[in-house]
Every structure is written in structure tokens, then in C-alpha cells.
Amino acid sequence: MQAVPLDLWNLDEAHVMIRSEIHRLWSAADRKDYAFDEILQTRGDIKAASHLLT
Fold first, then answer.
1. What are the φ and ψ backbone dihedral angles of 13, each rounded to 5 degrees?
2. Degrees (nearest 5) of the Cα angle 16, 12, 48?
3. For the chain (length 54 residues), average pLDDT per consecutive 10?
């Protein structure tokens, strides 16, 4: 599902432990809480995450 430019969406961050390392799981969800994209990063870079999710 492609996001319509005028749609409102939220960028959520969750910290998860994988093999004793903390990772950040970024999730983009629309107004109806439908997650339309997710990425997993070893560093918490919100600027890069929002660029990848838009």
C-alpha cells in the first residue's frame, strides 16, 4: 500500500534485543493503525528512518 501524500501517519520506535544487541524497529502506521512499512536498524537514526519510510 502506497501512502497518499496528504495522509497522516505516525512513526513509532521500539527497542528489541537480538543476539544480545539492541536494535531499533521503526514502524510507519496510518490513521487506522495499519503498518505500511517497517525497518530494523542497529543505530537509532530517526532522520534516516523517516527518509526510508516516506
1. -125, 135
2. 85
3. 66 89 86 78 73 63
Strand order in the sheet with 35-41: 9-18, 21-30, 35-41
Indicate whether this model's pTM tops 0.70.
Answer: no
Question: How far apart are the C-alpha atoms of 33 and 17, rounded to whole Å?
Answer: 24
Residue type, 17: M
CB 30 within 8 A of CB 8: yes
H helix and E strand count, the chain: 1, 3
Q: Could you tell me where the beta strands, DSSP code E, fall in the chain? A: 9-18, 21-30, 35-41
The domains of the chain are located at 9-53
